Input
Amino acid sequence: MFNILLVTTGGAAGAMLRFILTNFSKTLFTSSIYGTLTVNILGCFLIGYLITSDLSKNINENFIKFFLIIGLLGSFTTFSAFSFEIVNLIFSRKIFIAFIYISISVFVCILFTYLGMLINKF
Output
């Protein structure tokens, strides 16, 4: 039950940080893509750092896993989880599966975003 609380509070914090950073970038740039790109890059860096760090020696491992990685970074950016899965596939020498996963994720998600928008136009 405590892990659910960690994920929930981390998720709220991550969503709030994403909102703040994305809106801040809109004051600096004319497009929101810079905020999204920044969030995705920062989230990918942080998840890579946290997963491979020795922080669990000083900080509770459940806090790192459930609050920081799943909660905060999971809501801050889902791209960090996607990137971690790709890196794991590559490290497992499943290069072809990683390529297929990347291709399907990018192209199919963009296609379905378009289809969802198209359906709303009717």
Notes: Residues 2-28 form the longest helix (27 residues). The chain has a mean pLDDT of 88. The helical segments are 2-28, 33-52, 61-76, 79-91, 95-120.
